[in-house]
Amino acid sequence: MSARYDCAETQQREDGLVAATSAVQEGQLVVLPTDTVYGIGADAFSPVAVAALLEAKGRGRNVPPPVLVGSVRAAAALTQTLGAFGQDLIDEFWPGPLTLVFRASPTLMWDLGDTLGTVAVRMPLHPVALDLLRRTGPMAVSSANRHGKPSATTAEDAEAQLGDAVSVYLDGGPCSDNVPSTILDLTGTVPRLLRAGVIGIDALRKVVPVIDLPVPAEPDPQDLSPADRRAAEAIASGSAGAGAASTGAASTGSASTEAASTATTSPGVKPAAPHPLAGGGPEPDQGAQPGPGD
Question: Which pTM was predicted?
């Protein structure tokens, strides 16, 4: 049987925090408000509790939950190193909606799922969440919704989706928005944006000037505006025409081939460079985890 506590009332908030702390220590699941969306949380160091969290969401080990912390010291203890940019990003954006992916400390005895040796860490800017995290220690927390369903922005939304799988619901009122945290991968030499979120790329670049951005997927033609669709058709038509012309030119013999070769190798003639937005970057790190909002 689940219990829900209205954290807007002082006594209920304290009772709820005590009940939630006890539940986490006993390996049970709790729902807590954050500065993005509601999260479902468990003791990060209890494999059984983490497995129950994934089961409650209907999610597999291939999408492990991030870890929320109540202090920078707790975050540092979870990581192998903060790297060249971790401390600066923490100083600028924590507590807040920025999830940072680090190499996990090899000494940790936990099982969050298939993390590939990484851990996604965040310190939320919410008084109830911070109070709970400082009582429980690091918690594995994911968005409080069934996999594939909308993120919960109220305790009622979370309870409707998760029901009695959760022991304690801490009701902190409605979230101001349902935009998830930004996720930045710091496991490589150059930080990589894994997910756009509340904190924009321009704000991040004030701290980290160079950030590897994901390659945008090709848009579905059905989603294009009429103008963009006509432009795409024009490009396709031009490419087809160029292919036909190339075939015709090839049949004229070696003389034209030699002329073309001379033209492309003449001094001052350079091949066109690809546009910087044309693609060619690496795929997102398969070991990185999503933060609340996924």
Answer: 0.75
